[in-house]
Amino acid sequence: MPEEDLVELKFRLYDGSDIGPIRYSSASTVAMLKERIVSEWPRDKKIIPKAASDVKLICAGKILENNKTVGQCRVPFGELPGGVITMHVVVQPSLAKTKTGMPHYIAS
């Protein structure tokens, strides 16, 4: 794989610790990154995602969509050659797990 197709990423967890940096193909999807994060999540943390759907990735202030590739999510400004891109990880369990039974009202 050519060097220019690789992007070095690290994932910042809620407590300030990191997973990575790890090199990924720019063709890797956000969904693939989430799967890897869940599989490499430190088991000594209080909050542990059970599935990739429990994880949100944020880069440059934007929540990344699962079907986007790393190359599509890159922020052109602020990128340094050979630099590591930090993505923030938010664990948000799916609504089905956190449902309180309270009715939801829609404001009109």
TrEMBL record:
Membrane protein topology class: Lipid-anchor
Swiss-Prot/TrEMBL keywords: Cell membrane, Lipoprotein, Membrane, Methylation, Prenylation
InterPro entries: MUB (IPR017000), Ubiquitin-like_dom (IPR000626), Ubiquitin-like_domsf (IPR029071), UBL3-like (IPR040015), UBL3-like_ubiquitin_dom (IPR039540)
Gene Ontology terms: cellular component: plasma membrane
Subcellular location: Cell membrane
UniProt xrefs under Pfam families: Rad60-SLD_2
Domain Ubiquitin-like span(s) in chain numbering: 7-75
Protein's job: May serve as docking site to facilitate the association of other proteins to the plasma membrane.
Protein's recorded name: Membrane-anchored ubiquitin-fold protein
Species in which this protein is naturally found: Nelumbo nucifera
